[in-house]
Amino acid sequence: MPDIARVLRSLVPWLSRRPRPRRHIGRGILTATGVRRVLAVLLMAAAAVLAVRPASSAGEPRSPAVVTSRDVAPWRKLEPPDLRVVRLPRSALPDGVLTRPEAAVGRMLSGPARRGEPLTDARLVSPVQSTTSGAGDTATVPIRLADGAVAALLRPGALVDVVTVTDSEEGVRTLASGASVVAVTESGDAGPGEHDARLVLLELPTARANRVAAVSLSRPVTVTLR
C-alpha cells in the first residue's frame, strides 16, 4: 500500500492553492459582456438597415409608370427623350401616375422634376388649345397683369386678348388676339408695392409673343377674356 502520509503531503500543495474565483469570474463576466455588446451592436445595425431599407417587393406585382429620364425644367414642353417607362411595385405608384409617354409629350410641368421622378396628371399643366395654324411656330411668354386680380380668373386653356394703354385717341392697343393661357403661377411672391405677383404664361405665335414681351417691359398690360 502506498504511504498514506506521502500521498496526503503530495496533495497539500494543490489543496493549499488559493482559488481565484474573482479572476475566473471576471474573465467570464468580461466574455459574456463582450458577447452581449457584439450582439447589441449587430441588432442595432440590423434595425437601422431595416428602418432605411424599403420592404422587399420581389413578389409584388409591378405596373408601368412614366418617369423622367433626366432633370426637366418647368414651363417647357416635354419631348420623347425626356420620358421613359419603367415597371414599379404597385404599392410605390402614386395616384394618377401616367402609364404612356404620349400622355405627357407636348405638355408642360407645373414645377421642376428630377431624373427618375414618376409623373402624375397633377404635375402637368392642362392642355393648351392651340390658336395657330402654323402648329409649331409658337412661343410661351410670361406677363404680369396690371390688375393682378384678373389673373385669379384665368384657367389653363382659356383664350384671351392682350391689350395695353396708348397715347392715341382710342387709348388702347391690342397686342395679341386669341392667346392661349398655359398656366398661372401661384400668388404669394408679391414684392413691395405689388398686390399680386402672379405670372400668366401665354402661348402665341413667336412674333406676337416677342411683341407682347417687349411692350410689357415698359407699359402695363392686361387681358380680356373671350
Automatic annotation (TrEMBL):
InterPro entries: SAF
Domain of life according to the entry: Bacteria
Residue ranges annotated for the SAF domain, each copy included: 63-125
Pfam families: SAF
Identification of the protein by name: SAF domain-containing protein
Species whose genome carries this gene: Thermocrispum agreste
